[in-house]
């Protein structure tokens, strides 16, 4: 096992400097600190029990791990960041945003270096390295999500399986038997956004059980052809009676614009329900009924659980808490029109 002297040798500093970086008892330059932390990561060094005692005082910092990437929904993820920061501040903690591509290395660096007392994982994928490697962190972690591998961290999220079931039943209650699923951005599917995959699988399965026929949009990109979507999937005989939306407000806006251009009335001719979205925080131009994300409630629960683990030494590994989804009626979901009714006009 590597020791503090090995770290010092690789970093080109003294053993006492490594100790000061770990304990925070003296001010060390950012350049030297980075060299020491890089050496710790390379060697896989973990401080011994004596070192742990030296650095036993808390930093009063919670790290938020959210790798920054192109095309992310800035409104949605900003909401999670701000709500997590607000709840942390109420609990007496500052926050440290970890946005590097090497997310696991980022977390190990700040937990091994006692720069954070716990970690919140944001923007969680179905197969997420951060949750899979949580057993290697020296501090507790909580994921806002439900990744496949979560034995060593806690998971708190909306129950997206229940959300899919709720959406299917709402449609069935209103007599909808042919619907279109407007998918989320294809990049999110490709990278394995856990909540989107869970909802879609549950929704399709429950629709099949209820005898609801579901057609899916093609790949959704930022330059989505909304008029083509309406022309190919909405207009004509045997038209669907509802759209179930997974996309962000910018996509849904242009689809609703195209429906208006085709003289399709919502909800008289066609119902719209949005699921697993955050329309209230985005610039949606129309009132749309929604089963929304809830950053405020989730972040409050996450910080409560994490602070309990930090301050009371509660073992939260493997803990799963899934919140029941809530339907918000804004008037866009109504009874299905008569069977076989042809709606709108050609675009």
From TrEMBL:
InterPro entries: Cro/C1-type_HTH, HTH_LacI, LacI/GalR-like_sensor, Lambda_DNA-bd_dom_sf, Peripla_BP_I
UniProt keyword annotations, A-Z: DNA-binding, Transcription, Transcription regulation
Coiled coil: none
An example Gene Ontology molecular-function term: DNA-binding transcription factor activity
Signal peptide residues on this chain, from the entry's feature table: none
Stretches assigned to the HTH cro/C1-type domain: 5-50
Gene3D superfamilies: 3.40.50.2300, lambda repressor-like DNA-binding domains
Keyword S-adenosyl-L-methionine: no
Name this protein carries in UniProt: LacI family transcriptional regulator
């Amino acid at each position: 096992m590597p020791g503090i002297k090995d770290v010092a040798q690789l970093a080109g500093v003294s053993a006492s400097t490594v100790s000061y970086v770990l304990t925070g008892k003296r001010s060390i330059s950012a350049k030297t600190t980075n060299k020491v932390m890089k050496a710790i990561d390379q060697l896989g060094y973990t401080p011994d029990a004596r070192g742990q005692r030296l650095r036993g005082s808390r930093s009063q910092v919670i790290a938020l791990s959210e790798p920054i990437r192109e095309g992310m929904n800035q409104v949605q993820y900003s909401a999670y960041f701000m709500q997590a920061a607000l709840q942390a501040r109420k609990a007496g903690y500052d926050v440290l945003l970890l946005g590097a591509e090497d997310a696991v290395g980022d977390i190990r660096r700040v937990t091994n270096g006692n720069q954070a007392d716990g970690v919140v994982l944001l923007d969680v994928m179905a197969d997420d390295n951060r949750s899979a490697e949580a057993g290697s962190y020296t501090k507790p972690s909580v994921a806002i999500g439900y990744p496949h591998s979560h034995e060593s961290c806690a998971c708190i999220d909306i129950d997206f399986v229940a959300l899919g079931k709720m959406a299917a039943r709402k449609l069935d209650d209103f007599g909808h038997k042919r619907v279109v699923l407007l998918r989320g951005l294809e990049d999110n599917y490709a990278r394995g956004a856990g909540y989107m995959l869970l909802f879609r699988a549950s929704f399709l399965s429950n629709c099949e059980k209820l005898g609801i026929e579901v057609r899916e949009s093609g790949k959704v990109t930022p330059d989505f052809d909304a008029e083509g979507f309406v022309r190919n999937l909405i207009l004509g005989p045997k038209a669907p009676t509802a759209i179930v939306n997974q996309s962000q407000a910018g996509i849904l806006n242009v689809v609703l614009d195209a429906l208006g251009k085709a003289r399709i009335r919502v909800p008289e001719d066609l119902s719209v329900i949005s699921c697993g979205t955050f329309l209230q925080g985005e610039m949606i131009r129309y009132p749309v009924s929604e089963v929304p994300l809830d950053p405020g409630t989730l972040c409050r629960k996450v910080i409560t659980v994490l602070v309990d683990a930090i301050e009371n030494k509660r073992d939260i590994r493997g803990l799963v808490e899934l919140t029941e989804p809530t339907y918000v009626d804004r008037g866009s979901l109504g009874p299905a029109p008569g069977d076989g009714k042809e709606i709108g006009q050609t675009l």
